Amino acid sequence: MTDTQPLTALVLNCTLNPSPAASSTELLGQQVLDELAKHGVTGSQVRVVDHDIRPGVELDMGEGDEWPAIRERVMAADILVLATPTWMGQHSSVAQRVLERLDAELSETDDEGRQLTFGKVAIAVVVGNEDGAHHITAILFQALNDVGFTVPAQGGTYWNGEAMHSVDFKDLDETPEETASATATAARNAAHLARLLRETPYPPA
């Protein structure tokens, strides 16, 4: 196993702003991808709100549902980066929709009885000009782990603005050192863990 073993990552950007609007969530998600690239991981982003993701907990909710195509990209990636803004101290409704659709993975297994997500790593990304990042990260970690993803040590990064102010992450002149450091750590540990899981998968059920 070498540090140059290629891996892939996918950011699901759960902003409420459709393209081409600027997105703080996209910016921090891209910073995670940039850090992952330093460890041999290539990646891309999907702005989920641009797609018709139907409510439900099935793999495919029927005609017009665009989740199956996004799911294909999730399942092809070694690392999932779930990125959400903060609204009223909570993750976005788009992020909640993603979690609900991932619930279908509980019934998807390989030939040895393992969930198809068992070899995949997940990172949480949270931005907002209000409090809530730790609360949201805890929710994302629990939900992603529950459906089979593995969370690395310090596998989250976030930025919260000053309370009662309106400055967004995308408006900053530079990324705060604390956020940049957390992003680098999350990416480094995620790449390391993803390679370990590829080399030594979880045991059969």
UniProtKB/TrEMBL annotation:
NADPH-dependent FMN reductase-like domain residues: 11-154
Gene3D superfamilies: 3.40.50.360
Residues passing through the membrane, by range: none
Pfam families: FMN_red
One example GO MF annotation: oxidoreductase activity
Protein name: Multimeric flavodoxin WrbA
